[in-house]
Amino acid sequence: MSTLSVPLSNNLEAFIDEMVKGGIAPNKAEVVRQALNRYAEDQAVEAVLRSEQEAREGKILRGDLNKLLDRMP
């Protein structure tokens, strides 16, 4: 596991402190880890929703992958 040093605004630091005081996480590092995990999950959901929307709009490629690759420039 690596350590990352990131400057935070006073508001973000106060928010993290409140999360620890409120028992959301045992320490500041865990608050940040939880937030990053949630962000990654949100991004994955957004990608699925975007793909579903593109499929509804007919913006998907169907067929043999090798044939599709051959058609690409």
What does this structure look like?
The relative contact order is 0.06. With 73 residues, the chain is mainly alpha-helical. The protein has one domain (10-71). The chain has 3 helices and no strands.
Main attributes?
mainly alpha; 3 helices
Please give the structural blueprint.
Elements: H1 10-21, H2 28-56, H3 65-71
Overall tally of domains: 1
Number of strands: 0
Radius of gyration: 21 Å
Beta-strand residue fraction: under 5%
Q: What spatial form do the alpha-carbon principal axes imply?
A: elongated
Largest sheet: none
The residue fraction in helices comes out at 55-70%
Short description:
This protein has 73 residues and is mainly α. The chain has helices spanning 10-21, 28-56, 65-71.
